[in-house]
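Case study.
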Amino acid sequence: MRNIKMTIEYDGKRYQGWQRLGDSDKTIQGKIENIIHQMTGEKIEIIGSGRTDAGTHAKGQVANFKTESTMSLDEMLDFFHQYLPQDIVVKQLDDMPERFHARYNAKGKQYSYNVWNHRIPSAFYKNYSMYVPEYLNIEKMEEACEKLKGTHDFRGFSALKKTKKSTTRTISDIAIQRHGDILQFTFVGDGFLHKMVRIMMGTLLDIGVGRLSVEDIDGIFETGIRSQAGDTVPSQGLFLDEVFYK
Amino acid sequence: MRNIKMTIEYDGKRYQGWQRLGDSDKTIQGKIENIIHQMTGEKIEIIGSGRTDAGTHAKGQVANFKTESTMSLDEMLDFFHQYLPQDIVVKQLDDMPERFHARYNAKGKQYSYNVWNHRIPSAFYKNYSMYVPEYLNIEKMEEACEKLKGTHDFRGFSALKKTKKSTTRTISDIAIQRHGDILQFTFVGDGFLHKMVRIMMGTLLDIGVGRLSVEDIDGIFETGIRSQAGDTVPSQGLFLDEVFYK
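After joint prediction, the assembly is written out as follows.
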């Protein structure tokens, strides 16, 4: 039995997210599984490194699937390019040891979030960024990033209902870079709770415009109360950049 | 009577091009005229620097319109941002002398064309580039650009039927730049015939893959026969970057 690792790029705009929902044709996972079924004749479930929400993009989502197919990786790559919709691209395929598991073996992830920070909006980046015309205090946001970094209970920065699972995560890096009118926020960590990046982003933007203070981060960590953090920013600015393995 | 110059950015994907066609709601000109009508109560025709084809984008299309409105330019800018669809953005407004005419006064234009030149296509640039996985000989294409530059009869590089108007144009610069997997071709000239940039691009790509030779350019200039040049490349890779005025 072969175990194949896929690295996948997608424009999430038209989709209800990564995870297949029944027979829905509107998920990334569903689209890819349909093509693998056409390609191999096998009914295969692919395992993603994790879900992405409706509208979220990926530059390097990772998944794996097991197959008896004898097709070469190049032939499979060509098949994917021919039959997948243009907004889902399989960038790379690798044969892996049978024990490789895209979710269990993931050691960390990098996400980025684009903010279009100019009075004049963009006709081209509207689907790939959040429009924020207000002045943003970068220094204050960078101080807040320092507070978010490290190992904390991120319950207050997540959309989770009550859970018995640990909500402690470690963020190793957050960086803010300006590329022209785009402010790009990059988050690297060992794992992220549901909507955690988008809620941290909403909180950083509140600090950038002065609606929250840097010190409010401490309070959110202490109480774990979601409503003290900023809004969940729109998914169209969010990219899953990369999934890290050993 | 005020005469207002508009600088406009648009994602051409959803539109049938710049020029209003009857009552069609599917043109850039039509969309903007409808908003100006709402804004001023006046039935106004705007004058573009020239047409762009269905699917072609613009970073700096220029148009002008005359109005009795006493609104400030900032108020107008806000009105446009609020009511235009997100894929059409008025970037700048300027009050001009009454004789300013966006078409007659244009001294030249810059267009660019994006080619996605990598085996693996892009999920994000598909609407903003042409996918060309083949190896392209940049040196040969640059030699061809040198031949295209200057003052020539570009009849063979246009989609014009018989015309009595001059088909002589001057191209002052063509440049090829690589940005990652994107090859960007930039064309600067005093004017461009219908589909001229897209036919020059198709010809350059044919030279890049070896289907045509650099010397074939001379033949196309001599005979003026359209069928000797390359195909018209798709409009989604084309951008009107800038219109030049004195």
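Observations recorded in class. The first strand of chain A starts at residue 2 and ends at 10. The helical segments of chain A are 28-40, 73-83, 138-148, 196-209, 216-223. We will return to this complex in the next lecture.
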